[in-house]
Design goal:
By secondary structure, this protein is an alpha/beta fold. Helix content is about 25%, strand content about 20%. It has helices at about 1-30, 270-280, 300, 305, 330-375, 440-450, and strands spanning about 40-50, 50-60, 65-70, 85-90, 110-115, 120-125, 135-140, 145, 160, 185, 205-210, 230-235, 255, 260-265, 285, 290, 390-395, 415-420, 425-435. The strands form four sheets. Strands 1-2-3-4-5-7-9-10-11-12-13-15 form a twelve-stranded mixed sheet. It has a three-stranded antiparallel sheet with strand order 17-18-19, with helices on one face. Strands 6-8 form a two-stranded parallel ribbon. The longest helix is centred in the last third of the chain and has 44 residues, at about 330-375.
């Protein structure tokens, strides 16, 4: 019984070891090559580089024409020659390839090229110009510092390009101009501090990754040539703002990531509008505010009066707890409406003031006229050397009894104004005929006709 148990344990251990060995072999083989489960035939293939022959793995699909060649972790220092036709996928990951020198004569049918985790530092002009049907290029996890303007010349069918985890500090403006079918571009984890405004001109990019760089600013027209852009990742840069107007050029945007950027969260209209747009899209990730505010709640944290006047002024709300919680929907429109109301009220008040002044002046003039018809004498205001001045106002009824009154006519609706002036030498008299609606201007006209001499006036 004991022997049976011992044998069973040994067999069990042996079976378990075999299982683990088989599992580890399958796992390692799957993780090391790119041959898929659809590849029915797998056989070794001899590849040569720098005079050294090495066996790689060749996978063929059922039709026997489409091949995948895996040369992973074989210490190649250049592109190997594998003496095969119909290769569509070439996997050269984890080798020691330092440069590309137009080494793709045998791979004119290549559609996918894996060059990750090599030691490339430069992509020379026309390095891939013979790969006219290539649509997927993987160059990530290298040491690329320089991209020449014509580095990707000839890749007219390229749809995906991976340049993440390199040492790129700048990109020439025309680098991606000759890639009419490029849709996915990954430039994350580089050292980019800026990009040319027209760097994406002529492309059809739908997915753009610029995360983990050193970008300090984004021009408002940088994405104007990307109307089909659906995903833009700017996570973990040095951005303090983003031009809200730039989103108008990307109407199909479904994913927008600004996380781990420390924004200057103030009450400017651009910042608030960007906050409102990001709040409406659940897949858009907002930045972090330097002053501790919640970027998605700027609409409520900013005072209403500041929101409409700080479009070009960077004054910050440093204490969100004390900020007035008033909505700023349509802040500009409301401010303009209030301004129009104030202007209208000012005009109405001014008109009323002018009209009231006019009525008062008219009433004052009428009062002077009535008082002048009742009084026959006024105190002398000032003596200018004229001895006497006498004036009377009489109606036609009193003309017969008044020696100084002179008849004017038989119209009883008229009154007579008679003035005599004496300076001790001679005497002058002036008679003025007016109706009952006599005014101060009439009296002044009469006075002006008396004499060029200085006279005493009645008020």
């Amino acid at each position: 019984m004991i022997l049976f148990i011992d044998i069973s344990q040994k067999q069990l251990v042996h079976i378990l070891m075999l299982f683990l060995y088989h599992y580890s072999t399958i796992f390692l083989s799957v993780s090391a090559v790119s041959c898929s489960s659809e590849d029915k035939r797998t056989n070794p293939i001899t590849c040569t580089a720098s005079g050294i022959s090495t066996e790689c793995r060749q996978c063929a699909q059922t039709d026997g024409q489409h091949h995948t060649v895996d040369c992973i972790s074989l210490q190649f220092s250049e592109i190997p020659r594998c003496n095969t036709e119909g290769v569509e996928t070439l996997n050269l990951r984890k080798n020691r390839i330092e440069q590309l020198n137009d080494d793709f004569e045998e791979y004119v049918n290549l559609k996918t090229l894996y060059l990750e985790e090599n030691v490339l530092s430069e992509i020379k002009p026309a390095a891939f110009h013979k790969l006219t049907v290539l649509n997927d290029l993987r160059l990530n996890e290298n040491f690329i510092e320089v991209l020449h303007e014509e580095a990707f010349e000839g890749l007219n069918e390229l749809e995906s390009m991976y340049l993440s985890y390199n040492k790129l500090k700048s990109i020439p403006a025309s680098t991606f101009h000759n890639l009419p079918k490029l849709k996915k571009l990954y430039l994350g984890n580089n050292l980019l501090s800026s990009l040319p405004n027209d760097v994406f001109h002529g492309s059809m990019i739908t997915h753009l990754d610029l995360s983990d760089n050193l970008l300090t600013g984004i021009h408002s027209e940088m994405f104007k040539d990307l109307p089909d852009l659906e995903s833009l990742v700017l996570r973990n840069n040095n951005l303090t703002e983003f031009p809200e107007i730039a989103l108008d050029f990307m109407p199909k945007m479904t994913r927008f990531n600004l996380a781990e950027n420390k924004f200057d969260c103030n009450c400017q209209n651009d910042v608030i509008n960007l906050s409102k747009k990001m709040k409406l899209h659940p897949r858009w990730t907002p930045p972090t505010c330097l002053n501790g505010m919640d970027f998605l709640e700027l609409e409520h944290d900013c005072p209403r009066e500041n929101a409409s006047t700080k479009q070009h002024t960077k004054s910050h709300v440093t204490d969100p707890m004390n900020a007035k919680s008033r909505p700023i929907d349509g802040a500009n429109e409301m401010a303009n409406y209030e301004l129009y109301i104030v202007i209208l009220l000012c005009v109405i008040v001014l008109f009323c003031a002018v009209w009231a002044t006019h009525l008062l002046v008219k009433r004052y003039n009428r009062g002077n006229i009535n008082s002048s018809t009742q009084n026959t004498s006024r105190p002398i205001a000032q003596n200018h050397g004229i001895d006497t001045i006498s004036s009377r106002v009489s109606s036609p009824d009193s003309q017969q009894n008044n020696a100084d009154a002179r008849p004017v006519d038989d119209n009883r609706n008229n009154i007579l104004l008679s003035c005599q002036v004496s300076d001790g030498v001679g005497m002058a008299s002036v008679t003025v005929q007016r109706n009952f609606n006599i005014s101060l201007s009439d009296i002044e006209e009469g006075r002006s006709r008396l004499s060029p001499h200085n006279i005493k006036t009645y008020v």
